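> example.struct
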């Protein structure tokens, strides 16, 4: 590896570590400002992936992400979709909303 490549890899790792700590501190730590309802076991598993000997595992939040998606699906989407959206896919609705927002922004 060249010196430039080593510098880029080190910079990339430091950015990942900084971002991982910011996410953990804001959403998962015991005294976080915006708590996400995950189990203590999942929190500990995430910490282990973040504090790995080889640096932060880039997949350290995947299990938490899946837990949050299950909560959203159970608490919000499943109760809302049958009554308000019928057979439409949420993806299509969100996409059409994004197109409308972009169209409105371009008009301004």
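> example.seq
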């Amino acid at each position: 590896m060249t010196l430039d490549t080593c510098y880029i890899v080190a910079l990339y790792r430091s950015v990942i570590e900084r971002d991982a700590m910011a996410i953990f501190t804001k959403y998962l730590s015991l005294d976080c400002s915006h708590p996400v309802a995950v189990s203590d076991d999942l929190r500990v598993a995430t910490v282990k992936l973040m504090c790995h000997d080889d640096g932060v595992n880039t997949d350290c939040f995947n299990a938490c992400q899946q837990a949050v998606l299950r909560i959203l699906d159970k608490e919000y989407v499943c109760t809302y979709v049958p009554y308000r959206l019928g057979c439409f896919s949420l993806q299509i609705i969100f996409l059409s909303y994004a197109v409308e927002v972009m169209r409105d922004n371009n008009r301004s």
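> remarks
The radius of gyration is 19 Å.
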